[in-house]
Amino acid sequence: MSQKIADLRKLTGLSRIAFSKHYGIPIRTVEFWEWGQRNCPSYVENFLERIVKEDVAAGIFNNPAETV
Question: From the centroid of its chain, how far is CA 9?
């Protein structure tokens, strides 16, 4: 599960800090998920995957100034 969160973040091209700010997730939570110290609930992972993919398809991350 931790790899999926990292892959989603990398898909956006955002740092952990920018990703956490953009999606309103505490930075420590993102770090713990990516490091495998905590498991992301499957329903959160599913929602996050859907939202990230929609945002990427919409081109939201093409302009870095708009993502922070």
Answer: 4
- Sequence letter at residue 52: V
Domain residues for the domain of 44 are: 2-66
Q: Are 52 and 14 in contact (CB under 8 A)?
A: no
Given the structure tokens 């898909």, which residue do they identify? 11
pTM of the model: 0.85
User: Residue 67: which of 3, 11, 5, 2 has the closest Cα?
Assistant: 11
Number of domains comprising the chain: 1
Q: Is 27 exposed, middle or buried (0-12, 13-18, 19+ CB in 10 A)?
A: middle
Distance CA 16, CA 30 (A): 7
pLDDT value, residue 62: 82
